[in-house]
Specification:
This protein is an alpha+beta fold. It is built from five helices and ten strands. A seven-stranded mixed sheet has the order 2-1-3-4-5-7-6, sandwiched between helices. A three-stranded antiparallel sheet has the order 8-10-9. The radius of gyration is 20 Å and the shape is globular. The two termini are about 35 Å apart.
Length: about 240
């Protein structure tokens, strides 16, 4: 069956809500930091590259997400529509939320896309690390990764930019935990014990259990001598 018959709706996520892609919104540049180098991308070609990736191979990537979520294949005919929203733009990659509506319910995934070579290397390394962690620890502590792929950004003047992408599980009510050195910052943070990450962290089997209960881990850290800060950011993975 032709994958083009599945409706794919494209949006830009803003503080005021989702804005449909179309007309002038497609020419809006993607956010970038003051020190960012590389090509200036716009929402239209970026989101259409995501759409082309999802439609590829009779929506192969979408069917893989559904199979890993449900444990069994969902028929092509069971996919009602797909919603893609560009939601975040960080130092390493651009983040799109993919919502798949089927006869069995709604399923969400995240597509992280990297443009520059160093960003692509970081994305590939993150993908390999998450795959190894999935093999070692049970599901529940970390987002599952579904696959590593490639996209082509094409703008009207004829520019073609190859990009790398990782399709992974979308975590609702996700919290990012950021380590930082001691500081006098006014940002909300929790103090945690100084430790030798190189010696202790990779071989520490309790780490995933601690992440399942971040509140308990933070409380226990606050009872110890501290010299690091843990900043908690709310949001979805990016």
């Amino acid at each position: 069956m032709d994958p083009r018959i599945i409706p794919v709706r494209l949006f830009i996520d803003t503080p005021e809500g989702l804005i449909p892609l179309g007309g002038p919104t497609g020419a809006i540049p993607l956010p970038r930091g003051p020190e960012f180098r590389g090509p200036l991308l716009t929402y239209g070609p970026d989101l259409r590259a995501v759409e082309a990736f999802l439609r590829r191979g009779s929506v192969r990537a979408v069917r893989r997400v559904l199979k890993l979520h449900e444990g069994e294949s969902i028929a092509f005919e069971g996919i009602r529509d797909i919603e893609v929203a560009s939601v975040k733009h960080g130092a390493f990659y651009h983040v799109a939320r993919v919502r798949i509506r089927t006869e069995a319910g709604i399923f969400s995934a995240v597509l992280n896309t990297a443009v520059l070579p160093e960003q692509q290397k970081a994305l590939e390394a993150e993908f390999r690390l998450l795959r190894r962690l999935q093999e070692r620890f049970p599901r529940g502590s970390l987002p599952r990764v579904y696959g590593l792929g490639s996209l082509l950004y094409r703008d009207p003047p004829g520019t073609v930019i190859p990009m790398k992408s990782v399709l992974a599980e979308w975590f609702d009510d996700y919290h990012e935990l950021h380590w930082s050195a001691p500081s006098k910052s006014a940002l909300p943070a929790h103090a945690v014990p100084q430790m030798d990450l190189e010696d202790d962290f990779p071989n520490e089997p309790r780490a995933p259990e601690d992440l399942r209960d971040p509140g308990g881990a933070i409380e226990s850290c606050n009872r110890a001598e501290t010299s690091l800060r843990l900043q908690v950011w709310e949001g979805s993975p990016g």
